[in-house]
Structures are given as structure tokens and as C-alpha cells.
Write a structure and sequence with these properties.
Elements lengths: L1 E2 L16 H13 E3 L3 E6 L2 H15 L5 E8 L4 E11 L1 H10 L19 H15 E3 L5 E6 L2 H11 L11 E6 L21 E2 L29 E3 L2 E3 L4
Antiparallel strand pairs: 1-9, 2-3, 3-5, 4-5, 6-7, 7-8, 10-11
């Protein structure tokens, strides 16, 4: 049985716009972001990175985002360091970002968000956002290296850009992304919905027969809804057929 939490039907739904900014938002969130129950945030030391993330988040979703100065504890230096935070409260955005990565947004368990394969512009935005968070650009040749302990994530990314990838055992792995990766011709666009799929599966635990009683006669009417033969009853999808 199809079902959705009734309270979520009242929340504001976002109009998500695919493109470079959308890809950057997803990539940076996969690398350095936090997806909570009803919020999405990014806390980094680089003000430029935080500003780009805020601008792309607003461009892709329409949500207002701004930078906030914060402090972050440094275990290496044993003192607090200045940083910048971008945080927006939106359960819809949090849910849809979890959907993109397979349901679990934890950096070690997230899957590769194939929604960013819509076109080259979106995918390039993803690469830029992910590399800004978990990578670095090389000084002496045109390319970047991204670092992650999530081996399946990097392996899937490597296949898309046609790169060789050798995971390291017991430590973070690296994937080299040359700026000329497109010449390999390995990128294939895919069509995935950018909007949230809100239906869920609900288990029917019991069906009780009900017998009409009483001497008074009654009439049962059936009807059909057109063009949308369905409606929600307390979050449950009901289809009417005559």
C-alpha cells in the first residue's frame, strides 16, 4: 500500500533547478556537508568555498542562504579556529538529498548521486563542489585529486570519468581527475528525477470484514474520479473505481 506521512503534505515543496549550481550543491554536500532531519549545513574554514555553496544552494532551490562566522575546534592545534557556516532549514531539501545518495547521507555510507549525470554542466558542477570539499588542485599540471574512505563512491565516479582507481586498504583512497577527462568519451547522460519521491510502502497488518446490521435498507454507491483516480485518506493513497 502506498503511504506518506500526512504532516509532510503540508510542508513547502521546492522547485529544484538542474544545472551547474545544482551539481555543485550536491557535490559539496557529499564531500563536506551535513544532512540533518530537517536541515542542511556546511561548515568550512574557506570563506570562498562557503560563499560559492550558499550561492549555488539559493540558485538551485530558491532557499535563502547566507554565511555565518563560527569557530571550529582543531584537534591538531588544540584550539578553536575561525570558520564559516551555511545552514538552511528545510525537511524537503534534507529528504531529497538523502534520496539522491540512496537514503543514508553519512559520508561513509552514501551512494554516488547519479542524479548529477543529467548533463555535462550538472556533472561539472558536481566535480567542482566535491573537489572543493574533499580534494585539491595540482599546481604543475591541469587536474585535481579527491580523497575519500568511501571506496564504492570513488569507484563509481572513476568509471564515469574513465579513470583508473586503486583503493587503499585501511586508509583514505585517492582519485585523480584530469581536466581533460571528457576526451575519453565515457560520460553518458542519465535521466533521474530531481524532485522528492514522497510515497512509501505501508504493510497491511490486518483486514477485518464488516457486516451491515439493522433492518433499515441502505444503498452503496461507487464512483470514479477523472482524470486523477486517487486521493489521500490520512496519508494513504486510495484509488476509486466505479
Amino acid at each position: 500500500m502506498a503511504w506518506t506521512p500526512p504532516r509532510r503534505l503540508c510542508r513547502t515543496r521546492l522547485t529544484i533547478r538542474p544545472g551547474y549550481e545544482f551539481g555543485y550543491l550536491v557535490g559539496a554536500t557529499c564531500a563536506d556537508g551535513t544532512v540533518g532531519k530537517n536541515y542542511v549545513s556546511l561548515i568550512v574554514n574557506d570563506e570562498g568555498f562557503a560563499a560559492r555553496y550558499a550561492a549555488c544552494l539559493t540558485a538551485a532551490t530558491g532557499l535563502p542562504a547566507r554565511l555565518e562566522p563560527v569557530t571550529r575546534p582543531s584537534g591538531f592545534l588544540q584550539r578553536d579556529l575561525p570558520g564559516f557556516r551555511v545552514r538552511v532549514v528545510s525537511s524537503y531539501l534534507a529528504d531529497v538529498l538523502r534520496q539522491y545518495v540512496g537514503g543514508d547521507a553519512h559520508h561513509m555510507r552514501q551512494g554516488f548521486p547519479r542524479v548529477v549525470l543529467k548533463d555535462l554542466a550538472t556533472f561539472e558542477g558536481f566535480l567542482d563542489g566535491y573537489a572543493d570539499g574533499d580534494g585539491f588542485r595540482h599546481k604543475h599540471w591541469p587536474g585535481r585529486t579527491v580523497v575519500s574512505a568511501n571506496v564504492p563512491f570513488l569507484a563509481e565516479l572513476a568509471a564515469i570519468i574513465g579513470a583508473r582507481f586503486t583503493p587503499l586498504t585501511g586508509k583514505a583512497s585517492q582519485l585523480v581527475i584530469t581536466d581533460r577527462w571528457q576526451r575519453r568519451g565515457t560520460f553518458v547522460a542519465e535521466e533521474h528525477s530531481v524532485h522528492l519521491v514522497e510515497r512509501q510502502s505501508a504493510t497491511v497488518s490486518e483486514v477485518r470484514p464488516h457486516t451491515a446490521t439493522g433492518a433499515k435498507p441502505f444503498t452503496l454507491y461507487t464512483y470514479r474520479l477523472d482524470p486523477h483516480p486517487g486521493f489521500l485518506v490520512n496519508g494513504h493513497l486510495v484509488r476509486a473505481r466505479g
